[in-house]
Amino acid sequence: MSLSMTTLSIIGVLGLIGIGLYALLAAQHMIKVIIALQILAKGAILAFVAAGQANGHVSLGQSMALTIVVADTIVAVVGLSLAVQARRYIGSMNIRSLSNLKR
Amino acid sequence: MWQIVILVGMLICAVMAVRTQKLLISALWLAGASALVALWMYLLGAPEIAVIELSVGAGLVTVLFVFAINISGEGGAPAKELLPRSVSWGLIVLSIGLLAWMGFSGGLPLPASMDGTIFKSVFWQDRAADVLLQIVIIFAGALGILGLLAEGKSHTTKGED
Amino acid sequence: MDVNTLFLWLLILPFAGAMVTYLVGRVAVINKVKDNPARWLAFFVFLGVDYIFILLAQQFLSSGPIDLTVGTVALQFDGISLVLGGSALLLGTLSSLFSVDYIAGDTGEEKFYAMIIAMMGAVVGLSCANDLFNLWVWFETMAITSYMLVAFYSTQPGALEAGVKYLVQSATGSILVMIGIAFVFLVTGETNLDILQKTTAPASILLAAGALFIIGFGVKAALVPMHTWLPDAHSQAPSGVSALLSGIVIEAGLVAMMKALGALAHVSLSWGVILLLFGAVNMTYGNLMALRQNQVKRLLAFSSLSHVGYMLIGFGVAIQFSILNGAAGGFFHLLTHTMMKGLAFLAAGAMLYALYISKQKHGPLMLEDLNGASRKYPMAALGLSVAVLGLGGLPPLAGFMSKWQIFVAGFETQNTWVILLVVYAALNSVLSLGYYAPMVNRMYRLEPSATVSEGKELGFVIQIPLVILTSAIVAIGLWPSAVSFITTPAAAALLKAFGG
Amino acid sequence: MASTLLLLTIGIPWAGAVIIWLIGDEYQKLLHGIAVAFSVAAGVAALMLIPYATGTPIISVDTGPVFGVFTFAPDGLGVFLAAVATVIGSLAVIFSVDYMKGEDQIARYYAFVLFFIGSMAGLVMTTNLLLVFVFWEITALCSYALISFHNDDPKAVAGGMKALIITQFGGVGLLLGALLIHSYLGSYELNDLLARWNDIPAGVLSVAAFGFLAAAAAKSAQFPFQTWLPDAMEAPTPISALIHAATMVNAGVYLLARFYPAFCNVPGWKTAVVIVGVFSALLAAIMAVVATDLKRVLAYSTVSQLGYMVYAVGTGGIFASQFHLFSHSVFKALLFLGAGAVIHAAGTRDMREMGGLGKKMPVVRNVFILGSLALAGLPIMNGFWSKELVLESGLAGGPMWAYIAMLIGAGITAFYTFRCVYLVFYGEPRKELHVHDAGPFMKTALIPLAALSLVTWLAAGPFSLLLKNTLPYHELEAVSTMFVVEEVLKAPATWIAMVVIALGLIAWWQRDKLTGLGKSLKGLGDIAADSFGFEAINRGVVAGVQSTAESLRATQTGVLNWNVASILIGLIVVMVILVMGA
Question: Where are the transmembrane segments (chain A) (predicted)?
Answer without folding.
Answer: 6-26, 33-52, 64-84
